[in-house]
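DM from R.C. (forwarded with permission)

"hey, sorry to bug you on a friday — could you get me a structure for this? deadline for the figure draft is monday and I only need the backbone to look sensible"
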Amino acid sequence: MARSSNDRSIAGYHHSLGTRESETQAINCDDPLTQVANRKTFDLRLQEEWKRARRNGSAISLLLLRIDQFQQFNDQHGQQFSNSMLQRLAFTLSRVPRRSTDLFGRYGNEEFAIVLPDTPTYGAKRLAEILLQRARFCDVTISIGTGTVIPSESDFRQLLDSAIQALQQAKQEGGNCVVVG
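My reply, with the result:
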């Protein structure tokens, strides 16, 4: 009888450890402020999706989003209000990509990113335009740069460079727009 009680205690202990481990993994995967994937998680998933797209010969798209005039907003309204806005924006925008394979994550202080497996240029642009509209519900504007490649025909850096250059062009055009790279 004591033995089965000990077995149950050990099983309960292992279950408790497993639950804590899952909670720790979730905490380590999400940005603590916005509760979306953090940069490390996003980068790992982007690499996984890149490899999968390369094997399948399918397109992969990357969207980089930046809040327009965030520093000015932060200076004017303060850190606490800016954090609240970041949370609201992340919550709103992270619900736009609907497929389980799409990943929305925090990419930098005022930047977010979305990886869109199996998504050609027109699909990435369409989603980016929806994101642009939804950001307005949070009383901010965003700039979005998109990059789309077929991994078997290009390298990983080309996808990143394309999205980064498109985002820079969107900012140069005054923000509140989508530029396809």
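R.C.: lifesaver. Confidence is low (pLDDT under 50) at residues 13-27.
me: no worries. Helices lie at 2-29, 39-56, 70-77, 79-94, 121-135, 156-172.
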